[in-house]
Design a protein that fits this description.
The chain is α/β, with parallel strands linked by helices and 376 residues long. It is built from 15 helices and 17 strands.
């Protein structure tokens, strides 16, 4: 796996690069649609390729481990063969799910004991076990097992959690370095910077992660309820420490404005459930601003969802028709809206890349942050 920087914006810390994997290249900055259980909700793989133009998607260790299970995935030849996606893939280690299952899990040095949200059965995730699971899933990029602390968070808890996350990282690296991929393609481990919103802990973690010399690095534990300005402060601090010749992945972020602001701080990779989750509730992101398609104002608006965006869903369906689908509770409504929103997100990072290459990102970003968050 290689990462080549091809351009830097002269007025911000934004970069354009190419991350090359055995399943193909990824042009950065990039947004990665979230396919938690091996499927990006309500979106066909063909649509992800042809309309959304996704270059990489995500799977989730916790969910895939529980269902369909490791035996099925290994017999299928890994998640790429199982779901038919032949481009790069990343798997989240399940650390965030451990965070969100606070009522049904116990965290110890060994790992995390938790109850399945499906049937209540008990399971144990250890750093070594999570690496083995991700080997079986077969993603190109696999994430270290960490603890995602909540916000707000007590300093002493955040410090103890961070120290354990670093010890877990050492165990993750030892396991990965002593095992081989199962399906003939390279897999690379990305460590995760934690430390809540405490500057000294974030600095300590970013320096520790940078010293490990892995193929890429992630920033976790943000976008968990903290104010946006605090997220940007922590992100910039981490990006200034993490090596510039490796991709930087900000986990779980975010709105269009969040993505543009963090690109300006030096982030290369993003993921978030926001575009598909909001789509299923009738919120559309467009090149002109945000639309609540359920509103009456769209009842007889027969113009495309977003003529400037391009892509099948965005240009074929009218606002009036999509509003009708939502009010009639037709599944097609959520499907079309999901494809549209993902098309928008990939357009957004592709446009950011074009502006970085042209040396005009800073001015464009300031204009777009304001425009894209207008409620139409």
């Amino acid at each position: 796996m290689t990462f080549d920087l091809v351009a830097r914006d002269p007025q911000t810390k934004a970069r354009a690069g190419v991350l090359t994997t055995d399943h193909g290249p990824i042009e950065t900055p990039i947004f990665m649609p979230v396919g938690t259980a091996g499927s990006v909700k309500a979106v066909h793989q063909r649509e992800l390729k042809d309309d959304v133009q996704a270059q990489i998607i995500l799977g989730n260790t916790y969910h895939l481990y529980l269902r369909p299970g490791l035996d099925t995935l290994q017999k299928a030849g890994g998640l790429h063969k199982f779901n038919g996606w032949d481009r790069p893939m990343l798997t989240d280690s399940g650390g965030y799910q451990v965070y969100s299952l606070s009522n049904t899990r116990k965290i110890k040095e060994e790992g995390v004991k938790f109850r399945s949200h499906i049937d209540g059965s008990q399971h144990l995730f250890t750093p070594e076990g999570v690496m083995d699971i991700q080997r079986i899933i077969g993603a190109d990029i696999i994430m270290a097992f960490d603890e995602c602390t909540p916000w707000p968070c007590d300093y002493d808890y955040a410090r103890r959690s961070l120290d354990m996350t670093h010890r877990w990282l050492k165990r993750c690296m030892a396991r990965i370095d002593s095992t081989e991929p199962l399906y003939g393609h390279e897999q690379q481990l990305f460590p995760i910077v934690q430390g809540s919103t405490f500057r000294d802990l974030r600095e300590k973690s970013a320096q520790f992660v940078a010293e490990q010399g892995r193929a890429g690095n992630a920033i976790g534990g943000l976008s968990v309820g903290e104010p946006a300005d605090l997220m940007y402060e922590m992100t910039e601090l981490c990006c200034d420490i993490l090596p510039s010749d490796k991709p930087r992945y900000l986990m779980g972020v975010g709105t269009p404005a969040n993505i543009l602001e963090n690109i300006a701080l030096g982030v290369d990779m993003f993921d978030c459930v926001l575009p598909t989750r909001n789509a299923r509730n009738g919120m559309l992101f467009t090149t002109q601003g945000i639309i609540n398609i359920r509103n009456k104002k769209w009842e007889q608006d027969f113009s495309p969802l977003d003529a400037e965006l391009g892509g099948y869903a965005s240009t074929f369906y009218s606002k009036s028709y999509l509003r009708h689908l939502f009010h009639a509770s037709e599944y097609l409504g959520g499907m079309a809206a999901s494809v549209h929103n993902l098309t928008f997100y990939l357009w957004l990072v592709r446009s950011a890349r074009e502006q970085i290459l042209a040396g005009t990102f800073s001015e464009w970003k300031e204009r777009m942050v304001k425009q894209l968050m207008i409620r139409l």
